[in-house]
C-alpha cells in the first residue's frame, strides 16, 4: 500500500491515504493487504495527524478480505458503524465533544424546517459543512432524523443545532430574514424542484390558507410509548 508522506521540518509523518468528507472528517479505504503491526503504526500516526488538523470523524472501510485488521482498528478506539456482505465500516470520533455521527439504519429520513414571520420572510442559513459549503446558497435548516426521533422533534432540533434558535425563546439575535421570493429566485432553487415546492408551500400557507399535516399524539396497545399520527387536524373536528 502506498502511504502519504508529509514532511514536517525535522521528521516525516506517514499517514494512511484518505479523502476528506463533507462534514470535517476523513474516510479511509484499505485496498491492499497489510501486516497488522504496520497498519497499527500507520493508524496511530494518522490519528495524531488528523487530530492536529482538527478533523472530526475518521471512517475506516475494511473489505472482507482484510478482516485481519479489525482487531487492530478496534483497539485504537474505533467502533462498528455498519456492515454489508463484503465490507465493514468502522468509525472514530476525535473531538472531546458529543458525537454527531448518525446511527446506521435501513433508511434515512431527511427533514427541512420552514420558519416564517408575519413579514413574509423566511429563516435561511448558509452551511459551514456539507454539500452546500462555500456555494453561497441560502437554504432552510435541514438534516437527518435520529433513530427513533419523530419528524417534528427532529425539525426543532435541527433548527436549534444550525441556528442556535430555541423555539421557546421570543427574541432572536444575530439572524437575518429573506423574502420568500428572493429565496425561490436563487438559481439553485429554480433548478431543483424540492426547493421550489418548499417556497410554494410557504406562500400557499400565507396567502391561501394551505394546511398541512399536524402531529397528533397517540398511545399504543402494546406499550406505553407515545407516538404520533400525522393528519389534517381541522378535517377531523379535533
TrEMBL record:
InterPro entries: NUDIX_hydrolase-like_dom_sf, Nudix_hydrolase6-like, NUDIX_hydrolase_CS, NUDIX_hydrolase_dom, Pre-Nudix. Pfam families: NUDIX, Nudix_hydro. PROSITE patterns: NUDIX, NUDIX_BOX. The keyword Cell membrane does not apply. The keyword Cell cycle does not apply. Keywords: Hydrolase. One of its GO terms (molecular function) is hydrolase activity. Residues 106-238 form the Nudix hydrolase domain. PANTHER family: NUDIX HYDROLASE 10, NUDIX HYDROLASE RELATED. Belongs to the Nudix hydrolase family. This is Nudix hydrolase domain-containing protein.
Amino acid at each position: 500500500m502506498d502511504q502519504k508522506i508529509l514532511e514536517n521540518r525535522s521528521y516525516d509523518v506517514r499517514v494512511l491515504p484518505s479523502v476528506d468528507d463533507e462534514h470535517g472528517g476523513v474516510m479511509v479505504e484499505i485496498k491492499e493487504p497489510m501486516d497488522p503491526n504496520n497498519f497499527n503504526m500507520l493508524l496511530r500516526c494518522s490519528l495524531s495527524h488528523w487530530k492536529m488538523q482538527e478533523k472530526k470523524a475518521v471512517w475506516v472501510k475494511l473489505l472482507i478480505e482484510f478482516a485481519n485488521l479489525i482487531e487492530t482498528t478496534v483497539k485504537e478506539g474505533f467502533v462498528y458503524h455498519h456492515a454489508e456482505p463484503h465490507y465493514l465500516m468502522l468509525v472514530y470520533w476525535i473531538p472531546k465533544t458529543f458525537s454527531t455521527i448518525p446511527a446506521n439504519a435501513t433508511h434515512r429520513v431527511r427533514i427541512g424546517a420552514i420558519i416564517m414571520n408575519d413579514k413574509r420572510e423566511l429563516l435561511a442559513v448558509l452551511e459551514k459543512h456539507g454539500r452546500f459549503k462555500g456555494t453561497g446558497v441560502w437554504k432552510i435548516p435541514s438534516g437527518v432524523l435520529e433513530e427513533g426521533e419523530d419528524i417534528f422533534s427532529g425539525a426543532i432540533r435541527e433548527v436549534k443545532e444550525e441556528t442556535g434558535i430555541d423555539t421557546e425563546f421570543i427574541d432572536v439575535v444575530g439572524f437575518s430574514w429573506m423574502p420568500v421570493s428572493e429565496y425561490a429566485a436563487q438559481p439553485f432553487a429554480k433548478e431543483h424542484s424540492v426547493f421550489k415546492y418548499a417556497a410554494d408551500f410557504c406562500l400557499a400557507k400565507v396567502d391561501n390558507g394551505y394546511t398541512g399535516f399536524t402531529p397528533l399524539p397517540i398511545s399504543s396497545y402494546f406499550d406505553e410509548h407515545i407516538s404520533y399520527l400525522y393528519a389534517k387536524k381541522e378535517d377531523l373536528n379535533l
